[in-house]
Every structure is written in C-alpha cells, then in structure tokens.
Amino acid sequence: MKRIAGILSVILSLIFFVAFNACAAENLWFPHVACVDGWETEICILNTDASQTLNGVLKAYSNSGTAVSGEKIISLSPHARRQISVSDEFYDAGEIGYMVLDISSGSGVGYTKFYIEGLYRVAVPAVSEINSGDIYVPHIASDQEWWTGISLLNTTSAAKTFTFEFSNGTTKTETLSANEHRAFVVKSMFGGTTPQGVESAVIRNAAGVIGLELFGSSGESGNRYLSGILLKDELAAKLYYPHIASNNEWWTGIVTYNPSASACNLVITSYREDGIALGNQTRYLGGHEKYIGSAKDLGLPDETAWFSVSASSPVSGFELFGTNTGHQLAGYTGVNISGKSGVFAKREMIWDGWTGIAFVNIEESSANVTLTAYDDDGNAVDTEAITLNPHEKKVKVAEDLFSGNISAATCIGYVADREVVGFQLNGSEDGMLLDGLPGMMKIKNDDAAFTTGNQDFVLEEALSYAPLFGNSAGDFQGSNLPSRVDYSSYMPSVRNQGNTGSCTSWATGYYYKTYQEVIEEGWDKNRYAFSPMYLWAMQCKNFERPASFIASHEILKNRGCARWATVPYEDYYDDRSQYRNFYIPDSVHQEASAYRSGDRNPLTGLNQTKNALADGPVILGINYYDHSHLRNNVTEEQNYLRYDPGNYDGGHAILCVGYDDAKFGEGALLFINSWGDDWAIGGYSWIKYSDFNNIVIVAMTISDTPNQQGDDDNVQTRPDPPASVSASDAEGAYVDITWSKTGTALSYKIYRAEIGEPATYEAVGVSASTRYRDNTAEPGTEYYYSVVSLNDIGESEHYATDTSGKSYVDAGSARGQALTQPVLAWDRNDDSEIRSYFTVSNVDPSAVVMEVFVSKTNKGPWTSFGWIDPGDFYITWGEDSEYVGLKPFMSVRVANEYAYSYSEPAQVGKTIVTQVPVAQIQTLTAAADEGKIHLSWTTDGGSADFFEIWRYLASAGEENGNQWILVNGNIPADWTGGFDSGVLPGKSYYYAIRAVYQGTQSEYRMLETPVKIGTGQANLYLSDITYNYDGIVNPAEFDIEVYNDGDTDIGDYTIKIWAYDWDDQYSYSIAEFRASEVDWYGTLLPLPAGYHHTLSFTYEIPTAYADGHFYSWGIEIDPNNEIEEIYEEDNFLWSDKGWWLYGNTRKRNIMSASEKLNPSENSAALRPVSESENPNTKIGNTKLFNESEVTADRKRSRKENNFGPIRFKKPTFCIRY
C-alpha cells in the first residue's frame, strides 16, 4: 500500500536538537531494483566483522530519487546475514528503482539478485565505493542474439552530465538529475539498432555515478542466457580467471578489455589444478580493443585449470560460464578480486540447488585457508582448514569442503595467510537457473585512526594509533641536537581551512607535502604549494572516517597529492557529500601520482619529537587546550596554547615546524595552523615543553619518496656532495655521523673504511635525513666516513681513498661496548581495557631509554611503537587495531647515549579481545509541550560517544509500511534531554534511545505508552484495506481499518470505493455509502478519539467491470470533507493486490468508459460478510506496481515508470522500451 505522499513528506521533515557534526556514514548501495513484469529482486546484507554489530537503515528510492516504500532498520550481529525479497518486505515494490543501506556503525557487504522464476537469474555485488573517475564498460553485446542493458545511478546531490565513448568512436551524452536512477538497453541509445563496432565503452566524467550492466540472449536466439557485472572505475595490470570449464556440458567465456588509446601486450600464464605452471602465451591488444572468446579459443594447454593475464598497461575483464543447452549463464569480474579474507554470500540449500566454490592460491608460497560456515544469525556451523600449494586450485560443492554437516549454514567466510582468489556459482536443482559471485571482501583500513578537526574522537581511538601513549618516556635524546630549529621559512602562506573539518589534509598535504617538495625540488613554496582540497576530497571518497591522519597518509602514499593551482580549496561548510562527489579528472590523479609519500613513523614523547624535528617538521594531533586568548592583539608572551583539561575540542591537526629550548624560559615547540594568518601571530603559535604530554595526543613523520621524473623537470643533474661531514668519537658502541643538507638530494648513502685499509670502503647505511648512527662500528677501530648524496638522476661523487682531505669525509671511532641483553616477558591481558602488560628484566644499568617493537610473527617485519623508559610497560591496542584477534610478538631495544641491545621476541600469551562498557539507558520519558515533544533520559553511567533517538508512528503497524525512523544519530554524550520538533500534531509516537560507544550499541529503551501533541480536533486515518483476492467469489469481501487519531469523537462518515482500470487508465467511483450502513450490529460508531475500528462488508461488483480488464481497488473516507479534520491527505489508500473479472458466461463484456462512469443498473449492493453465497466469478491475484492520484474529473493518469507495469509484455532486462 501507498499513502498519499504529502503526509510522508511532512513526517520526514525532522528537526531534532542541534545538528552535531560527525563522520559521514558509510553506505552500501543496491543500484538497481526490479519488481515488475514478472521480475523479482533479492538483496542480501552480510556483516563481515568478527566483533562489531552492523547497524543501519535500509532505504528505498524511486527512479527520480524520491523516498518510497518506507525504511527498514537493519541490525546484524557479527557474521550475521539478512536476505530480503523486496516484493515481500516493501510495499509498492514496483516503484523502487534502487536501495541504499545507510550504515551508522559497523561495515558490511552484499549482493543484488534479479530473477524470473524458472527463466532467468543473475547476481551482482552491492556497491560500497562510489566511482571517482571514468567508468569502464568492458563488454557490449547488442545484436540479433544478444541484448545489453545498462543501469546508472547518480549518487550526488547535483545533476550529472557524462559521455559514452564507444569502441567505434561514437559518443553519446547523457544527463542524470540529482539522485536519479535510469536503466536502458544500449540499442535504445541508437534508435533501436546498435551500430557495428559498438562492443565496449568508457563513460567519461562519471565521478559519483555507480551502476551495472546485464547482458542476455534475445528471444530470437532460442537461449535463456543472462549475466552481468558492476560498472566500476577500476582497472588492473593483472587479471585472474580462476576456473576453466570446457566440456560437453559447459563453456567458459573470456573478456579482456583495453580502454586505453595505446596498445598493450598480454602475457597469459596457465596453471594445472595442482599449481604447476604450463607456460606463457603473449597476445597483442590494440587501443580500445577487446579480446572476447571462449577459453578453448585461446588454445590453452589441455590441462589448464585456471590462468592469469598480465598486461603492460591496466585493463579490465571478466569471466563467464554457460551451459551448452542455452539455459544457464553466470559471470564475475576479474579486476581486483584477490585478498586474504572474504565471504561467499549465499549457500544454496540442497533442496533448491547447489553451490560450487573454487579457490586459487595466486602466490609463490603455500596458503593456509580457514573456512567457516555461518547461519543467518552469525553462528558458526562448522570450520575447516585447507592448504593450497603455490598456484593450486581447489573446486568443490560447498558441502564437500567441510567434514561436518553444514545444512544449517547460509554463507561461508574464509581467512587466508596468502592472497587467494575465490568465487562461487549457484545453480538451481532443475538446471535452469545459474548465478555467480566473487568472494566478497570488505575494504577496511589496516589501521585505526582518531579523527581531528571539527570531529568527535575519544582517547581510545588515539591509543589504537599510538598504543604506548600513557607510558612514560625517558630523558635521553640523541647527541648533537641544536638548541633551536625553525622550518617556517619553507612553509607556504598561512591559509584558513574555513568551516570544514579538513585539518589533517592541511597539516599533511598543504604544509608538510609542500615542505618536502620545496626541499626536494627547490621550488617556490607558494607557486608549487600542494592542495588540501585534493587530499580532503579523496579522504571523503575513500574513508568512513575521512578526518584522520591514517586517511591522509593512505591517500598520500597510494595516490599522492595534486598541487593547489590544479585543485584550489573550496569550503563546503563540512558538507561531506559535496567533497565525496567533487569531480577529479584522471589528469589530476596522474599529476598527484608523481608526488607520493612513503611510510609513517609514530613518535612517543617530547624527546623523540625533538629528535625528529632536527631532521624536519613533525605532524601533531592535539586536544585539551585553550586558544581563546590567541584571537586578537596577541603578544609574543601570550602566544602559546594553554592546557585546559576541561576543554574537549574534538581534536585538531597541526604541523610542528621547529622548537626553541629557551622559549618562555623552559622551551617550546613552534607550529603552523590552518586558521588563517589573523590567528595568533601570523598563524603561528607554540606549545610549551611542560604541556606536551597533556596537549599532544599523537606525533608522527611521513617519509618522502623520490618524485617521478618528467620531461619538464628542472633537476637534470646529479646532486652535489654534502659540504661538510662530522663523525664523532663516541663513548658507546657506535659512531654518530652528521652532515649538511644538499638541496637536490632525496637521500644519502653512508660509506665507511678503516683508516689505513682503503679496500674496506663499503656502504653501511642509507638515511633520508642528515644524521646516521653506525651501530656496526667495531669498538677501538678508527674509520673514515664518506657521505654521498642521491637523487633521481644519480649519486654525487665518491671519495674512497685513505684520506680526510675532502669536506664530506671525516674520521670517528666507537669506544664503548654493547649493553647486556634485556629479557622481555608477557604478563597478562586486561580485556576490559584492550591492554597487554609486559615485564622487562636484566636491563643494563646504563640504559636510559627503551624502544618497543611489535610483529605478527617472531621473525618480523617489526613495527616500532616508539621509545619509553626501560622497565615494565603496557600496550593499549584499541578497538580497531590490526592485532585484535591475534597473539602478536613483542621485542624491546634498550639504549643509552652510546650503545644498545635487543631482547628475544616474546609472544602475547592470550588473544587480544575487546570489551566495551557501553552505557545502558535506564529511563526515557516524553511529554508534549508547545508543539514539540520533550524527551529526557538517564543512564547507568557507562561510556558513550553519542546517543541515537528513534521514532515510530504509533497509529499504524510495521505491516502497513510504517518503520522506526532515526531522528538524530549524533546526540552528544553529555546530553540528557532535548526536543523533537519534527512531529505532526495529533499523531501518536513511540520513542526509543540507545547509546553508542566505539561502534558498540546499548540495548534500546522505548517509551511504554505513545505521546502526542493534542489539537482539539478529530482526524480520520485510513490505515489498511484488505480483501480475499485469491479464490473469492462475487460479492467481494472487504475489511477497512480506520483510526481516529484526533482528540474528539466521530459519529459517522462517508466511504467511497474506487476502481482503477489499468487498460484505459481511468479511475471510476463505483460506490458511496455511510459507515453506519455497514456497522451491522451498531457497536462500531461513534468512533472515540484515540480508537480504531475495522469495518467488514461484501460488495457486489457491477457487471460493467466484468470485462477482463486489470483493476485496482481504492478506498476513500470522508471524500466530501464533511468532517473538519487535522489532515485530509491520510483518507485514501490503493489496495496492494489487483483483480480482474469475467461475467457468468465467461465472455468478456466490452463497455466504454462513459458507460462504466454512469452504469444503468445499481449493482453496488452492500451486505455483511457471508460464507453461504455461491461462487460464480473469481478475482485474480496480481501485484499492483504503481499508485495513481485522484483528480477532479475522477480520471487517474498512471505514473510513468521505466519498469512497468505491463502485465503481458515479454520481459527484457526488466526495462520497458
């Protein structure tokens, strides 16, 4: 059923409390839904997380982007699964063009499946990443035997114009309005006939657009093939085709598409099932060309079980499997489908069909794969471990992969220690239906990050990034540190980030990246400044929590950064959707890729930060500070942040550009801010040394990488050697070497030779800074040290003779001995704090600092957590740490100013788990006052990051399309009340509230009785109409449910019955009567305020309507507005089932519209429902797909819809054309 749209638009106009800025929610998109013309759509959502509940709201939209069919709250436990038949769970499913799962916490994957029972079936993954560039259409088959359909969705809030560039050179421009969805067959773009050579396409300027393509066999072909893939902006230099099926029953189809204008070479490598390589083939693929054919046509060796394609430039492609009978076809993409974990989203029940699963190990080492079968609730049904040799393939039906019984399982997850490719095929028992899906992987950040800027983050999130925070740091600092460092002369002009919480992109991109390139290239710092807009837009496009150091670093490392001149900054007042949908051309991405960054290095404590500052700026995350005194008339004595433990700012990112040991009499760090040059003094301020541990939450550096050399680059010569080198005579078992910076050098190589033994001249290390400690020096031996500069062109001159006559050569020696080896041991885990405790013994008495390392194996690679005092310590892992669920290895290195020593690795003895003490709601009260609903609540004192308030219209149940609505999902944790001004007077509402803490939700607390704003008026509300549409006889039986949700009683009212003819598209008023006429026992009227009743009656369908046409019922109450009501728009409903009727003679009676509008006989008799009447006509059971609206002349014009309704038209791609 569909209520009049006006009331929904009012109900959904929500203003609750004060808007509170939070991270943009993640969405899972189902970009095409078809529930018309015999087509059905199934969607599935899976929670891939092992510990966090997935919560969200599933929303349905029409093709125009208007919300339809209500919403559904989704809450899935870890590993749980929800499969939804759209027609069964959403009213007016035929109006739905696409659906979106708005995820408030957790993460998930999913798929969409389209089918006509017994004829066609196809499945494609749901979309979790919005396309940010050109979209590739790798295959178009549009001729006498095949059709190709394309479905596109504009996810942005602005109109989108894009261009199809087809493989034959033809171009077509299309425009989608904001949030519009459109589906069409390719031949419709060419007037019904597809030109020769249209075999693939690139959709240009398509950032923000998602979609899919389906290809199927035509009716003329005699086959019933149907398959499809997502349309994405991704290419890959290596594609995987993990299964070959070529025999009397099956064929395998291969597509590899080169979207570039330049040719590329393909290297095809075949493997046997046991992983043995069978050799390579080379093929040439011209620009915009596509290889298409069967695996058999490739001429692969007879024993080929799978193969890979390596391309000299990125390509796209997919694989198809079909039966020679023409009944079954399934496929999936070959682009970016490898990973170490994933899920096979649907296991077919054995009474319905079968599920085949294949794994391929694509690495050179053996892979251990753990399979877990889960039921819909996320319970593990069985677990199995398998081992795959290098390049080996295993393929079995799902049940045969497990030694136990998995009959209760609905999906299968896998975790591997090597990169694997997995896929599944699902077939029906009758051999008629088939679909395929790759193993679906949730793209997740490897690291947790705290958010900064105008964002809400908690300390625990910072600890997951800097897990040693809270441990004390030693007093040791490296030798030869200057007393003052200042890099402000290398900084670009101070600018203002405005009203957007983009400070991480300013600190890491605009300031830090600009500094690195100014040093590397010798560029003008303002002319060649780098763009925070590029970085922030990419962070918003790719991360659920974009305002984080991790997000900034991941973009800098993997995508690079464009220049300000190319992408100037725009302040969209923190509207994340505008940044997400900000169009970035491929040429800009290409520019950015030339300026990438390397790895990040977290720092612990003031001394580590100062050591790093000796080599360059340091990125800081700060909180708990007061800067109110830095806004106007700031003096030099006032220019520092004041520690304020009560000022929770939400976090901010800055760039530290120096220090001064004498500043303010105690020393301070100098930083540049992104709040404009009228803040503080010219946009710069200080943090005192004494406030460092209180204000600074995280410190880190990011290494630079050599830039790609272009034809127009200025640096075309080798760098000069350093002007001077100094090698110390250290008391410890090492030598410290320092040297002067060389402007065009990217890094430095350190060489060493024993004095008097020039033949021993050899490289001992590399440094990106101007300092190096040689820990391999033999105590008592004197060395000459030479430093060589490096850049992309080459190395500076060497000096390898036994002399110190060059300025870049100096002598030094190590005198002390190594420290005694410390002993590290794991003590215990504190699950409530997500913390591990360690003891350290046998520490050399001279050691003053200790570095802590972690690794997933006892042989590394090792990651440093930073320096602390020697002795016992703890690690706070954090909810999102990559080590949660593992037992990692730890190691420490103790050091003094002269020497160091490592411990043996020690493993954490218990798996790291999380346990979050989320607050529980104890009371919730609500009261109406001055046109608003005032709410208040109390908690048990537990932790909360924020609260969520939900609302439910009490005067209708969920079965009538009503849903719980999230009113506000980001209520500050310190609030205990507020008001909802988005409610309708006269309507009764329930409310519910829950707390959320680090992604974990409390139980809901719901009002026991509904609350409403009184009006003093009556209000009729037609809630539901039903009739027994299947197997009934004339007269038809009706039940209508009517509410009085006003404040005064209603004595009687008028009821009108409408019939809508889908053949002539007219609506007819066929009966009008009073409610009292069907109040057979006089017990239902008057209808008191706050009550509802159900009227039951039969209706004799007039013979004028026994014409075989397809009709829908409509019921209208109080059609003449005799009752003064609060709302008039809630008095009409169309039934959700259609009917048709033939006369007693079974001959169709043809009557004109005028005859039906003015029937000559009065056959609209009303009677109580009776079971004694003899059947003579029947009403059919057919879905109603569209609503119509009453007009003054009683005519109804059917709304246009790309998908129908057309009852008798043969379906093709679910599209009317």
From TrEMBL:
Keyword vocabulary terms for this entry: Signal
Keyword Signal applies: yes
Phosphoprotein among keywords: no
One MF annotation (Gene Ontology) recorded for this entry: cysteine-type peptidase activity
Classification via CDD domains: FN3, Peptidase_C1
Annotated signal sequence range: 1-24
Occurrences of domain Fibronectin type-III (ranges): 721-810
PROSITE patterns, sorted: FN3
InterPro entries for this protein: FN3_dom (IPR003961), FN3_sf (IPR036116), Ig-like_fold (IPR013783), Papain-like_cys_pep_sf (IPR038765), Peptidase_C1A_C (IPR000668)
Ranges of Polar residues composition bias in the record: 1171-1181
Native organism taxonomy: Bacteria, Pseudomonadati, Thermodesulfobacteriota, Desulfobacteria, Desulfobacterales
GO biological process, one term: proteolysis
Annotated region (Disordered), positions in chain: 706-728, 1161-1181
Protein name per Swiss-Prot or TrEMBL: Fibronectin type-III domain-containing protein
